[in-house]
Design a protein that fits this description.
The structure holds two protein chains of two kinds. Chain A is an all-alpha fold. Helices cover 62% and strands 0% of the residues of chain A. In chain A, helix 13 runs antiparallel to helix 14. Chain B is built from twelve helices and nine strands. Chain B is an alpha/beta fold. The two termini of chain B are 23 Å apart. At the A-B interface, helix 14, helix 16, helix 17 and helix 18 of A face helix 8, helix 9 and helix 10 of B.
């Protein structure tokens, strides 16, 4: 309709100008020109699709939405619709498991994301459904663990998108720790142990050592607890401490209480939310623990609710109500 | 008690329309596909029926002299065609609307409503083996559909909301008769009505008793047929927070008594990461740490599963294999 609204002369002039931009046949003009494609070269079209898939289900930062689309869009609460499906995830797994070698298979563009197709596929997969990390082949997982950088802190300035990729992989590995083979676990411990000093490196060690302890690596208990205490004020501390308590209580449910009491006896770090840390981590044991551990955690929550600082905190009533624990206490 | 065990697959939901009946039906078909003998009992008596959705053939059950069903008679071995079944259902609808006597006597074809009513009224189980429906393609699943006719639904609603009706015991009495009536039976799939109160809650309470070896059924409960019942319960939910949040709260609240009640999200519009994030944001700061949303299993394949109702049938070759894992049917 817009086209028809133009005068015939204007239409003709526009078409001539458009034709003048037609690329010459046979010469790749840009990286998305099919004439430049080949199995031995980086597939920009596939990469563009994977890159888009990895970001499609994320909301843009509000300030960006406001600037581009206006206030109404920025205040909308609707979540993005899903593009994901089991079939799509299966395809992403197949792509993520492929090897890539040779410099021609690396992107020359600034993707703000991994520069190769297998890692782009892995990132898209983990952003759509992180739980599918466990469905990757051992070889594909091991390849990523072997490639773990020794210094995540250095990446935060040099290549923040790489830091984001490795953080995503490490969190997925921690969540899938129960599914990793003995060789993978040993490799992870070796690679993490070889990391340099630095807050991001230490945080990675903390997340993985606790997860691997929960998954059965007894030797990591002491280090996992030390790192947990070091990170007690971290926003993820309740979740990770919950995982540590699951490891403890799976081995010996009666050790749950002394472990929590030892934490409570430790001088709190600045800004530590003791109630959130302890109640949240015990709630995790109630949901994910084996029956004896669940019972011990319920009992401990009820006991803690009777004393300060838990007694005064309204969140304790919320937790007790959520699990119906008041019923048991009466 | 014998060494025989029967698995009891239970599908409930906070609200209707979330795919519960579809999953229950697929569960039964998958069970048959792996060589078991499942009975699918459609306990959702509030307005929909597997008999309308699937190409089912009603049994040509024995009738009394007045034309009503004899629910104590043995199987005839005969089945109506699908068209005859639909015609008989229409006759039942008309008869219940026009003749008062059919409110107290079961008109053919037999529905699960009649079986529960019989078990409640006479305090004994009907001959369920004589009242089982079959699929037109003889898929090997045994069906007991509910009735969706107006008067049957009104009566069921009265059972729910007004009249004294002991759902749990009526169903237990029926279940207890199955091991002897159907010696080859290995699985029962229960498609419960929407809601996690009343009858569905009572069934989940029963499940909790069957799950705990230290517990025994109350003495006034009917016997369960001398076999070991192994519950496999699911709470089916959508991505809608109105549905998802109360579903997770119900699971948390009953986690100590029904520890294997598994939340299953029929995923349509949101990816797993987004659904889990949504649940965390709605459950509150501490409760989000508990990670109850991590226990959610996701089912997609919606077009494939919907064939059950769109086309009235589902070929096993169309069924994605990971569903067996999600529904805990292996091993």
């Amino acid at each position: 309709m817009q086209f028809e609204a133009l005068s015939p002369d204007a239409r003709l002039s526009g078409m001539r100008r458009f034709v003048a931009h037609e690329p010459k046949f046979g010469e790749p003009m840009d990286r998305l020109d099919p004439a430049g494609f080949g199995r031995h070269r980086f597939d920009h079209r596939l990469a563009a699709v994977l890159h888009a898939l990895g970001t499609m289900e994320s909301r843009l930062p509000t300030e960006v939405v406001h600037e581009v689309f206006g206030e109404e869009a920025a205040s909308a609460t609707a979540d993005p619709w899903s593009v994901s499906s089991r079939a799509l995830e299966d395809k992403l797994i197949a792509r993520a498991q492929r090897t890539h070698d040779g410099p021609d298979l690396d992107s020359k563009l600034d993707w703000n994301a991994p520069g190769n197709v297998p890692d782009l596929a892995l990132l898209a997969l983990l952003r759509l459904n992180a739980a599918r990390f466990a469905d990757l082949s051992e070889e594909a997982r091991t390849r990523r663990f072997e490639a773990l950088p020794v210094d995540l802190d250095a990446l935060s300035n040099e290549a923040p998108h790489q830091l984001s990729f490795w953080n995503t992989v490490l969190i997925a590995a921690a969540d899938a720790a129960q599914s990793l083979t003995g060789a993978e676990r040993t490799l992870l411990v070796r690679k993490l142990g070889a990391m340099r000093d630095g807050p991001k490196n230490q945080r990675a060690q903390w997340l993985l050592f606790v997860a691997l302890f929960e998954a059965g690596m007894d030797a990591l208990e002491e280090e996992a607890l030390r790192l947990t205490l070091d990170h007690a004020a971290d926003p993820s501390a309740p979740t990770v401490f919950g995982r540590f308590l699951l490891g403890v209580s799976t081995r010996e449910p009666t050790q749950l209480e002394p472990t929590v009491e030892a934490l409570l006896a430790t001088p709190p770090a600045d800004g530590l939310d003791t109630v959130g840390l302890v109640a949240g981590s015990l709630a995790r044991v109630v949901v994910h623990g084996k029956p004896p551990a669940q019972k011990a955690a319920r009992s401990l929550l009820l006991g803690l609710a009777q004393r300060s600082p838990f007694l005064e905190d309204p969140r304790m009533r919320e937790v007790l109500g959520f699990f119906g624990l008041k019923k048991e206490s009466t | 008690m014998t060494d025989r065990s029967i698995r009891l697959h239970v599908f409930c939901s906070v609200k209707g329309g979330v795919g519960k009946s579809t999953l229950a039906t697929v569960c039964a078909k998958l069970l048959r596909g792996i060589g078991r003998v499942p009975l699918l009992i459609d306990c959702d008596l509030m307005g929909t029926s597997l008999a309308d959705g699937l190409e089912l053939r009603a049994p040509d059950a024995t009738q009394k002299a007045d034309g009503s069903l004899d629910l104590d008679a043995p199987p005839t071995g005969r089945f109506l065609s699908v068209n005859e079944t639909r015609a008989r259902r229409a006759e039942r609808r008309t008869a219940m609307q026009t003749e008062e006597r059919w409110r107290n006597h079961p008109h053919p074809p037999p529905f699960v409503n009649d079986i529960l009513n019989h078990a409640f009224g006479y305090e004994k189980a009907a001959r369920v083996d004589a009242l089982i429906w079959r699929h037109q393609r003889d898929d090997g699943v045994l069906y007991l559909p509910s009735s969706s006719t107006y008067d049957d639904v009104i009566e069921s609603a009265a059972w729910f909301y007004g009249e004294e009706f002991d759902w749990a015991r009526a169903l237990l009495r029926t279940l207890g008769a199955l091991p002897s009536q159907i010696p080859t039976l290995t699985d029962v799939v229960l498609d419960l009505p929407p809601g996690v109160w009343g009858f569905p809650h009572e069934i989940l309470d029963l499940v909790s008793m069957l799950l705990d070896p230290a517990k025994s059924l109350p003495e006034d409960y009917p016997p369960m047929g001398g076999v070991r019942w192994e519950p496999n319960p699911f709470l089916v939910t959508s991505c809608d927070p109105n549905d998802l949040v109360p579903a997770l709260e119900y699971i948390a609240r009953h986690q100590d008594v029904v520890p294997n009640l598994k939340p299953v999200v029929n995923r349509r519009v949101q990816a797993p990461n987004a659904v889990r994030a949504l649940a965390r944001s709605r459950l509150g700061s501490i409760l989000s740490i508990a990670g109850i949303e991590e226990t959610i299993a996701f089912v997609d394949h919606v077009p494939t599963l919907a064939k059950v109702f769109w086309e009235g049938d589902l070929d096993m070759v169309d069924v994605p294999h990971d569903l067996i894992e999600t529904l805990r049917l292996g091993g």
